[in-house]
Amino acid sequence: MRLPGLLYRLYGRVIAKDLPPEKLPHHIGMMVDGNRRWAKLAGAPTAHGHQAGADNIIEFLGWCDEFGIRTVTLYMLSTDNMNRSSDELQQLMGIIANMLDRLGEKPNLRIQPVGALELLPEYLSDKLCSLGESTKDATGLHVNVAVGYGGRREIVDAVKELLRDEGRAGKSAEQIADELDIEDVSRYLYTRGQPDPDLVIRTSGEQRLSGFLTWQSAYSEFYFCEALWPDFRKVDFLRALRDFADRQRRFGS
Fold first, then answer.
1. Which residues form the active site (predicted)?
2. What is the pLDDT of residue 224?
3. Domain that holds residue 225
4. 55, 180, 215, 232: which is deepest, by most CB within 10 A?
5. Is 63 annotated for ligand binding?
6. What residues act catalytically?
């Protein structure tokens, strides 16, 4: 084993030992950013970066399970990313499909699709729905897979569904508007029934949300990491948990 690897393992154990379990997040939003830049720096095809990123997701979920995180939302493909070249999208969606097969083999994971599935190829949307149905009763780590996801679109979809339901109940537009409150919208989000994320992590050094969990992240803590996603290590994750545990959370102004 190389010395730096050994040192990082020892350093990680020190951090993990001092993490107070009661101060760890229950729900983590993970923005897996930097696959394309990682591939470019490596002089490799873009698909190689996406595959390395998918491999790291499997590792990451294992770390979350180890530290008792109950819910993870993975931001894998935004609605804006749907404008990329057809070749890259085809390769990326194939990699996501293979990753879903690997997740389906993991015991007790609950997989839930989060996004506009109608934007995806039929084989991928069918796979997401099938996996969501077959794992819906699992009691382990709850993994939201955000593919074809956009925060603004999620809110619009939520409001549309709410209006349809209320309209079918015989309510007028004025009555719906008068009675509408925050919890009404929350009940129609893709993540309905789940706790909002306590912590949102983004890799690659970018410091913006890019439409990720726009509604749900109102009181989330944010952690931005310089590492590109395929290079994101367990020690980087532990640093994010330590940073979160050290913060004094405030809900409001």
1. 33, 81 (proton acceptor)
2. 98
3. 25-150+196-244
4. 232
5. no
6. 33, 81
